[in-house]
Amino acid sequence: MPAKSIYVEIEIEDTIEKVWEYSQDPKLHDQWDLRFTSITYNDKLPDDDVQTFTYSTKLMPGVQVTGWGESKGTHEKASGEKTSSLQFGTEQLISPIAEGKGHWKYIPHENGTTFLTQYDYQVRFGVFGRLFDRLFRPVMGWGTALSFDVLKRWIEVGESPKTQYRRFFSFYAICFLFAFVWLYQGLVPKVLTQQPLEIQMLLQLSPLNYAQASTAIIWVGIAEILFGFCWLVPNLQKRLLQLQVVIFPFLTLSAILAEPAVAIAPFNVITLNVTLWIVSIVGLLLHEQLPTAKSCKRKRGK
Predict the structure, then answer these.
(1) Which key words tag this protein in UniProt (predicted)?
(2) Biggest distance spanned by C-alpha atoms of the chain
(3) Do 69 and 97 form a contact (C-beta atoms < 8 A)?
(4) Fewest CB within a 10 Å sphere: which of 52, 118, 219, 302?
C-alpha cells in the first residue's frame, strides 16, 4: 500500500500578501519552518521561470543534510488564489528522502488566508526505507503542522519563531526531566534495590509490618514508573504539572515527618522537592501559548 502524501492546512488571520511574504522569502521562511535550518536562493536569469535554491537541515552538532530545490513557478487565479509548486531532493544517504515534490496554496477569504501544503517524496534503501518511512513520515507531517502554527502566531501575534521554539522545547525538556525522575525513583530505590530508608519511611507512615512494607514499596515503585511514562503523553502533561504543584509540598512534609534526618542530608528531600516544585510552576507558565500541530487540518476537506 503506497504511503499517503502529507497534507497540512491552517487558517491565518491576515492578508494573502503577508502570508506569501513570510513563506516565500527564504530569510523569513527558514525562521519558522522546523524542517530547515537555512534556505538560500540561487541566482537566476531574468527570463528564467525556475527559481533554484539550496537548503540545509541540522540534525545534531556537526551533522546536517544539504539538498537542492526548484520552485516550478507560481499560478494565480482571478479570485486571488495563488499556488507555488516545487521539487526537492538530496544526494546525502543520511537522509531517508531521495526526491520529492509538492505545492503551497494560498486562498484569500474575508477573515484572512487559508494556507496549505501537500507534498510527497520517494525514499531510498528500498523496502528498509519504506519500513522506516512509516515512522519518519508522521514525524515530517507533525513538524510541518507545528511549523505552520508557529508561522500563524508570528503573523497574528508578532511573537518570533525563535521565542516560540525556545518555549516549546524548554517545556518538553521539563516533561522528559520529570519522566526520568519518576522512572528512576520508582525503578532503582524501590523496585530494584528496595532501599532500607524507603522501607523505613513507609513503616513510620503506615501500620504495616516490615514484610508488608517491603512488598508495598515495590508497588509504590511500579506506580511511580507508570507515573513517569504518563509524562510522555502530551494530553496529560499540563494536568501532571498542576498535580505536582499541589502534591510536592505534601510529599516533602511526609518524608520529613517519617524520617527527620533526611532534611539535613546532602542533596536532601527538601532541596530536591522544592526544585522540582519550582520547575513544575515554570512548566505551567511555559505551557501557556505553546505552539501546537493540533491547530492544523491534516486531511483535505476534514
Answers:
(1) Membrane, Transmembrane, Transmembrane helix
(2) 88
(3) no
(4) 302
Model confidence band, residue 52 (pLDDT cutoffs 50, 70, 90): confident
Residues 180, 185, 190, 196, CA torsion sign: positive
* Cell numbers describing residue 62: 556537526
Kindly indicate the confidence band of residue 1, based on its pLDDT and cuts at 50, 70 and 90: low
Q: What is residue 155's DSSP assignment?
A: H
**Whole-angstrom distance, CA of residue 67 vs CA of residue 90:** 4
Domain 6-158, what architecture?
2-Layer Sandwich (3.30)
Q: How far apart are CA 163 and CA 100, in angstroms?
A: 31
Q: What percentage of the chain reaches a pLDDT higher than 90?
A: 69
Q: How far, in Å, CA of 181 to CA of 187, rounded?
A: 10
Hey, which bits of the chain come out as E strands? Answer: 6-12, 38-41, 51-60, 63-76, 82-89, 97-109, 112-123
On whether the CB atoms of residues 186 and 222 are closer than 8 A, the answer is yes
Give the count of alpha carbons within 13 A of 178, CB side only. Answer: 32
Beta partners for residue 115, in sequence order? 10, 106
Check: pTM over 0.85? Answer yes or no: yes
Angle at alpha carbon of residue 232, lines to 231 and 238, rounded to 5°: 50
Residue with cell 505545492: 103
Convert the pLDDT of each residue in 137-150 to its tens digit: 999 999 999 999 99
